[in-house]
Amino acid sequence: MVKSGTIILNTAARFLMPLQLMFSIFLLLRGHDEPGGGFIAGLVAAGAFTLYLFAFGVSATKEVLRMVDPRDLIGVGLLLGMISVVPAWFMGQPFLTAQWWTIPVIDFKASTPLIFDIGVYFAVLGSVTGMVMTLMEVDKDEP
Amino acid sequence: MGFVLAALSPMLNHWFGQRTSLVLALFPAGLAAWLALQAPEVIENGSLLLEWQWVPSLGISLTFLLDGLSLLFGLLITVMGACVLVYAGGYLKDHPDIARFHIALVAFMVSMLGLVLADGLLTLFVFWELTSITSYLLIGFNHADINARKSARQGLFVTVAGGLALMAGLVLLGIASGSWSLAEILDQEADLREHALYTPMLICLLLGAFTKSAQFPFHFWLPNAMAAPTPVSAYLHSATMVKAGIYLLARLHPELGGTELWVGVLSVVGATTMLVGAFLAIHHTNIKKLLAYSTIMALGTLTMLLGIGTEYAMTAFVTFLLAHSLYKGALFMVAGILDHETGTKDVTQMGGLRPVMPLTATIALVAALSLAGVPPLLGFIGKELMLESVLGADSFRTLLVLFAFLASVLTIAVAFIVALRPFYGQRHQTPLEPHEAPLGMLLGPALLALGSLLLGLMPAVLGADALLTATATAISGQTLEVALSLWYGINVALIMSIVSLGLGFLLFRRWDSVRGKLFALAPLMRHGPEAGYESMMNGIVLFSEWQTRLLQNGYMRNYILVMLATLIALIGNSILLRHSPVFTFDLDVRFHEVVVAGTMAMGALFATITRSRLGAVVSVGVMGFSIALIFILFSAPDLAITQLLVETLTVILLVLVLFRLPRFSNLSTSLERIRDGVVAAMMGILICLLIMTSWSIQQFEPISTYMIENSAPLAYGRNIVNVILVDYRALDTLGEMFVLALAAIGVIAMLKLRHGDGRHGENGNRENNGVKNADSSKVAAKEPYDG
């Protein structure tokens, strides 16, 4: 059904995917201050993979993802979300209180909301990519 | 922490192989030691509170209350836990699923410990439910056996149904007392017995406690739960879980006890359970069922003692509780040894085993004598005190004395059946050649039997200024001196004891013929509460089949219709009745806004009338992008970006699904189309009204001001939308993440399953699948913005 292999799409996808992924990370990191954030970034990244899926099909995309199954990404996302909850306990503060640390050398603000946001990113990425991929897989085998 | 250990136990299994049980047993043993160390302080001060803030903004914190009652229970749980783990190492040796067993057992132990230590009512409830679930897993451990599955389900249904009642009861208790902490409730001056909610609250709590503790008429699940491996029966169904209900009653006794309702219900139900349990016990020849029914009898006794509520009864309660846990745990483990070594659970098949299994026989004898209440064992003291407090009961005295006497005669018979029948008399042929059990399996029961003996000989260790005093004090709510001794002088209770021993022995000798006569009663038994449970379950199944056929008929359009109609009815009703809708038309719109809105309307219109699916998808997409435009016009870039991305992905998903759909055809009749049109139009009008109403009514100060002001200084972020998502409302987002993940897993599983099935359903179904797909991704994707 989805015809992969048109030259324009292939070339575009090959160049666009890394760009989109980089852009998604950019969106993710700046999300706290500027428009962006884990949710949007996750969607952009999922878009990147979807484009690649359309261009090269499921098996090629799986190769790009190598060992990573999108379904695992969902788990990673949820896990990160849960992890970000924990530090507050150690500081004796209520569950989910945001913690901020500044990493001195590069002046980077690390925080539990950031970890949480990364968790959102992975959960969204994993869910959407997983769904699209499964749909295409089923289609491929079902003439 | 315990749950982490439970999760790690398969790994431990890998490292330590067969010694895993021993290693795991170190954990409860360590906890027991820690609890024992706290004992002097608890005895001195009454109680200890350990607090851990959880979600203080919701008033939820993890607080543990350690007083005499929870200390006694905690010690029982941990010590028994250690014994049972060691025992299970022998019993389930080389079992392929032993890792799974360890996980469930340790998880259960931790839940149970949490239950008795919890201070918060909600914490207590959560742990209560956890014990039900882990118990379900343990009863159904042999999941290939249909009987085990059925019993596990029955236990789960009964206890969870009770759990629902309990939740209602706890909520009422929280409302009535104004506090969610047990320690505060117990300290309160105000008397809850006078409260208007007292009766419903008590009924709900009692339902919870009675189902959990297998009180008549909910007793039937416990004997069936004997489908579990014996270590589980020894641990859950004699010493710990079934006592959770008793624990709850004892815990609330100082605050709720003593009223007419309490005394009446508890003593009558307790006494009935006691008699019924003892009476049903002698029907059975299966050694585990015998013990299970005698456990029901013991649970009934405990409930009855709480009902009587005199000082004497409190002393009797704590002593009986301890004694019962020790001897019943030991007896169950002995039953397991017999089953394991002879291959049968039927006591009539066993006999003359003493020469082969001398140690087991000794343990069984000691424990059974304690059950029968023969001096100098702890069981004797417990029984003496029990009879004494029954004689001193304020209400229903004659009834209680009669029941207690009959029950103790029957119990003594049971004790003899269990301890003497298998070991003495003529040797029978058993399926397996019997031999002495391995050391690991003997250690636990030996320790418990020894405990029965030593504590019986030296009751002073428990009495004055020691553990049981603290426990009795915690239950009665006032300082109590517990003085235990083996000899109280010749009194009515002692005489009753001696007479019942004689009669019990007589019954044991004539057991075989008595049992034959009891078979005549069999048709009557079939109409017991269990039959009621069965017919109720069948009714539920029938009902759910009926309503599934009605509501879950597999057509997406029907689901949507029902959902929308409900929404319209509820919200429309509330808007029209409570707020008169305000229509303020403000025609101050700019040209480009009109264009965008017009595009949207045209998209919607086209989507409904087009006969091409692709056309519909595209026009829905047009609507989506127009919405994004509106977001941009009203300066909400985050929302606009999200909308764009979601729209894009939705179109992609829809296109993917589109190829799988059957040819477009018109299936609805024109009447159905009119109906759909009406619902759709009403929905549109409703949303319009809702927006206008919410615009005109401002009941509360909008929260956005606070969020905008504090976003940068408190949450260090200038993007408010993101700050709301990851900080202010992070808990909501976390929940949404799980929703999203579940939706994705659902979609993936559904597609893969259908695919792997090889059977491709009819077209109607397939259509459904696709639409659901796109729909759930869209819904899930949009949800994080709800908060």
UniProtKB/TrEMBL annotation, chain A:
Residues 8-129 form the Na+/H+ antiporter MnhB subunit-related protein domain. It is found in: Cell membrane. It comes from the Bacteria. The chain crosses the membrane at residues 12-32, 38-61, 73-92, 112-136. The keyword Ribonucleoprotein does not apply. Coiled coil: none annotated. GO terms for cellular component: plasma membrane. It is a multi-pass membrane protein. This is Monovalent cation/H+ antiporter subunit B. It comes from Halomonas campaniensis.
